[in-house]
Amino acid sequence: MTLTLRSSTSFINLKDTKSPKTPDHDQFTGTICFAQTKPSCRIRVIKSSMKLEAQLSLEKTTVNGAEGYWGNDHHDHEKREKLHALSSGGHNQDGNDSRVPVFVMLPLDTITHGGNLNKPRAMNASLMALKSAGVEGVMVDAWWGLVEKDGPRRYNWEGYAELVQMVQKHGLKLQVVMSFHQCGGNVGDSCSIPLPPWVLEEISKNPELVYTDRSGRRNPEYISLGCDSLPVLRGRTPIQVYSDYMRSFRDRFRDFLGDVIMEIQVGMGPCGELRYPSYPESNGTWRFPGIGEFQCYDKYMRASLQAAAEAMGKKDWGTSGPHDCGQYNQFPEDTGFFRRDGTWNSEYAHFFLEWYSGKLLEHGDRILASAEGVFRGTGAKLSGKVAGIHWHYRTRSHAAELTAGYYNTRHHDGYLPIARMLGKHGVVLNFTCMEMKDGEQPGNASSSPQGLVRQVKMATRRARIELAGENALERYDASAYGQVLETSRSDSGNGLCAFTYLRMNKRLFEQENWRHLVHFVKSMSEGGRNTKLSDSDSSGTNLYVGFIKEKTLKNTKEVALV
After folding, report:
1. Architecture of the domain spanning 102-210+219-286+361-530
2. Which of 297, 427, 454, 500 is deepest in the core (most CB within 10 A)?
3. Which positions does UniProt annotate for substrate binding (predicted)?
């Protein structure tokens, strides 16, 4: 019996070689095939009776080279750091521990709409390969829209339980994202997973439950933070719903927390990031590098703005957001608000931006306080993700960051308050765009991902919290890996305590891409030193990689597990 894996856009597809009546588990053998890239390669996992022996052999390939909102609370911070200590290792705040563990994100559709593990045989083989490459573990989204889709408090964790056991079997660790957002409509989304049907039913009854822009466009990606504390979800508040969900996860996987499941990333907005959905790609609403739009026009947000303005004695300021802030795809200089000498630096703008960003901070604070209570004593680290909005960073107003909820301008640090809020709960700040270089960005975007990363590193250092990283876009080249290696060091600000690579798919296992990953993981394990991977190296992988001539396989790359 043979099992063949073929490539797909979202995962490694199985070629069905069984009869319709043959159960899946009876069809497993050791041969796996991926889409051909020249030249082809064979990967063999070589086992001894005691352990995997490693040999890597490659031919003809080279590697190219509201501050004050949270207080200082230092003693409580230290207690939380000890409580959530990550036993797998990483940087401390001073960067003395040089090893940076690497995780790999699993496909978005790892769990099917039916709640089962997607293509378990392919997953098993892939995890075996990742373990052999030296990665620390993998990351998976625990989708609210899948787990609680059958009704309030009706949770189905079975597919995730199968994955956890498989990860444990391979000696890997797991990062789990509490994904309270929809999948679909953003960069890299390859499948569609909406919010739970019963939640969508409530939204259809009351469209004000979701974020809304100035023109009245509703965004169903995530429940508006404006109703965080209101019982709008069948008698429960959104925060209560998120808390119950996390508590159910904790109870189901209690025996694995702190051992296999090392980290819980708490989703706090679109794409799991602490931000507003200011740049939605769905239906062509936004295109890079547009400035985006403020998302404060549902009735709950408007009521909050009005109350804040009245408390300031400026009732007129509470009627709306800025009137001259443009549209999604405009540039800062096209607007009266964001242009170089625009009204973004006025007294009114300071009030509005403090309120808008402050509401986001309060939202994160509420969710993380709940998560901290749920996971206290489990040994699992908590993390929260912040978006890497690098376009228009070189301008004075930082328009794209402002519409997303980060009050970061030439005169105001928007990331230190976020870092301090996370630090209040002992949470790691997970930041994206670690792979990007300024010189790679289009000139009209006024972009500086490197400058942005430096600022965030300094903010986490000042707040005395840990920093973890991700790449924002799928990259497989040595240049991107090299930039992450550079960023991982602690020469300026914090070094990284961990890095999660986006994402596992068919391309990752192609010859040159796989070689770059092995090299990268090895370098990160050595503190970010960009050591050259030799043509024959056995220290970085348990996989034997050698090229074979195509005779009978023709256009198939074979990966044989023996």
Report:
1. Alpha-Beta Barrel (3.20)
2. 500
3. 141, 181, 189, 385, 390, 432, 471-472, 503
